[in-house]
Amino acid sequence: MAENGDQLGIKPVAEALRLAEEQNVDLVEIAPLANPPVCKLMDYGKFRYREQKKAHEAKLKQKQIQVKEIKFRPGTDEGDYKIKLGKLIQFLEEGDKAKVTLRFRGREMAHQEFGVRLLERVRKDLDAVGLVEQFPKLEGRQMVMVLAPKRKGPAPKVTKPKETKETKEAKEAKEPKAAKPAAPKRQAA
After folding, report:
1. pTM for the whole structure
2. How many CB atoms lie within 10 A of CB 179?
3. CA–CA distance, 34 with 39 (Å, rounded to integer)
């Protein structure tokens, strides 16, 4: 096959090499297992350069997912909680994963249920934008939970059931009709 895509037919190896040398290109074997093997006349250096450029541009278009971390304490106040929750939402909306770390100190280890409640609250508050990838587990003096962003895709279609004559009558029976106020009578002048 020529560089422009034309079929040259079946040629002996020596003649194919001569054609490649005349055109100042390389003889590249495309399908070695075919019978007879398929070769192409092309500038192999230029071909590799184009492939590298395509791979580089594809790499630039990819998004690297990072794991961002937010640290809580069992006694985190409401204001701090809301700020940290806002940051978690921002991380998840950008497509990054979020690691929520809850650190216990001293006697706080005796009341781990406060930490579990806090992480459960975080999970419920982030239910709209993320889902739990790794459920909270205790690692030494800290509890760790990993959240991943929800997939962005078409919203599922919710179809409402069609109203039949019976359902309309049932609705009307449940909702009493409001009496219309009488229009005031006009006096002749």
Report:
1. 0.49
2. 6
3. 10
